[in-house]
Design a protein that fits this description.
The chain has 427 residues and is of the alpha/beta class. It folds into three domains: 108 residues, Ribonuclease H-like superfamily/Ribonuclease H (Nucleotidyltransferase, domain 5, 2-Layer Sandwich); 121 residues; 121 residues, no CATH class. The chain is 52% helix and 9% strand. Helix 11 runs antiparallel to helix 13 and helix 13 packs across helix 15. The longest helix has 33 residues. The protein is flat and about 95 Å long. It starts with 14 loop residues before the first strand and ends in a 16-residue tail after the last helix. The model has no long low-confidence stretch (mean pLDDT 87).
């Protein structure tokens, strides 16, 4: 039986498409024919990616009455053209290159790519990617750079530890944090020329002083001036990165100030702290109208298993695919932190980890955090309410235990009939 669908055959009357490279932009424009009704006219021009050339292209689009401009996400080369056309008032669409596949067997060139993209765009056979507004983009630049600096600092710390291992200095075996105040004092002393294990061990502070004997053993090695030179460079880079991180965090707090209420909402979610809330806001924004349902947001973030089915058989391992790595990292860290709490999300993490492993538990709880985030951002007055760690036992546990007991008895050959027990009478 034929049924109506929501699909509509709509043609975008005046549309442009860009094939963007580092030095050149090939632009195809398609508009209605002036002479023949129902026909289309097109032109293809090549522009430089310099700002003046892009401004000339935008003026030409405006003269032709173009309303929508579509371009592929090619590295970072799309950004100058996108931002300029966006400022000019055009409806700018950034599309995923996977969604614009060229027909097999056809020649491929920049000109043909722009024409094909324009034809696909005018028939609305593609959908736009999410590009946040300028204020969120600026916040995103800061939060991403902070994460990159943290990675740089971590890499230098790992290099320093390996260098000490090369010199047979086993301090990392004794102390939990090689870059604590005590650890830094010891490394600075090594760099300054101190080699006496007893003197170095006496630099320990607080609770570390209970390990002075072990520290004296750990500092017996072959630390040379060569190691001192390299360790000094590494320690300087660590401290420079830390200073930059502090400076970036100050800038982030100033940029996030207009979204203080949203940060407070997200901070109520178990496992989500201020830094994680900053990253989530920077990656998905605060306007959830771009994502009609929580499922759309989870799918965009690749926290939903992909479906691959052919001939009635499912293929693959239901992998989630590759999404936003910065958002995935923040959600993963939040999921692990939530797993250590006595909350609903903590219990959910532990239940899944026991049955299917920690990796699947991280993805599942990360998706739950994303769904909660969608609801909180959708309603500025909403607040997080924890269901409690006993939610499964109170709501799901009894029914599941009943089914399991029935199944076990039936396996042993019994026919099970359940009757509710009479309630005890009050005396």
């Amino acid at each position: 039986m034929l049924q109506d669908t929501d699909d509509r055959e709509e043609i975008i009357a005046r549309v442009a498409a860009l094939d963007i490279g580092k030095a050149e932009v090939v632009a195809c424009v398609r508009v209605p024919s002036d002479t023949t009704p129902g026909k289309r006219m097109q032109e293809v021009n090549t522009y430089s990616t310099m700002t003046r050339s892009l401004l000339s292209m935008a003026d030409h689009f405006r003269c032709l009455g173009v309303t929508r401009v579509v371009m592929e996400a090619t590295s970072d080369y799309w950004k100058p053209a996108f931002y300029l056309l966006e400022a000019y008032g055009f409806e700018t669409w950034l599309v995923n290159a996977k969604d614009v596949k060229h027909l097999p067997g056809r020649p491929k060139s920049d000109k043909l790519d722009s024409v094909w993209l324009c034809k696909v765009a005018e028939r609305q056979m593609i959908r736009p990617s999410f590009v946040p507004p300028p204020e969120i983009r600026r916040l995103r630049d800061l939060t991403r750079y902070r994460i990159d600096l943290v990675n740089v600092r971590t890499a230098e710390k790992n290099r320093a530890e390996k260098l000490l291992e090369d010199a047979c200095i086993k301090v990392s075996v004794v102390v939990a944090d090689l870059f604590s105040l005590s650890g830094r004092d010891m490394m600075r002393a090594l760099i300054g020329g101190q080699r006496d294990p007893k003197v170095l061990a006496q630099l320990a502070r607080s609770r570390m002083r209970s390990k002075i004997g072990l520290l004296e053993e750990a500092f017996v090695g072959q630390f040379t001036d060569h190691h001192a030179y390299l360790l000094g460079k590494m320690l300087d880079r660590v401290e420079a990165a830390e200073a930059d991180i502090i400076d970036i965090e100050t800038k982030i707090e100033a940029q996030i100030a207009p979204f203080a209420t949203t940060v407070a909402q997200l901070d109520e979610i178990p496992g989500v702290g201020p830094a994680t809330a900053y990253t989530i806001i920077a990656e998905i924004g605060v306007d959830m109208s771009r994502f009609p349902t929580p499922g759309h947001l989870a799918s965009w973030a690749s926290f939903t298993p992909t479906i691959k089915e052919s001939a009635g058989k499912k293929k693959g391992k239901n992998a989630t695919g590759h999404g936003d790595p910065y958002l995935a990292r923040a959600l993963g860290e939040a999921a692990v932190a939530a797993g250590k709490t006595n909350t609903f999300l903590g219990e959910r993490y532990r239940r899944i980890a026991r049955r299917r492993g920690a990796k699947k538990a991280i993805v599942a709880v990360g998706r739950s955090i994303l769904v909660i985030t969608w609801h909180l951002l959708r309603d500025p007055d909403a607040r997080f309410h924890d269901l409690g760690p006993d939610f499964y036992d109170n709501r799901i546990g009894p029914e599941r235990r009943k089914r399991n007991h029935i199944r076990q008895l039936e396996t042993l050959g019994y026919k099970v009939t359940l009757e509710p027990a009479a309630l005890p009478t009050a005396t």
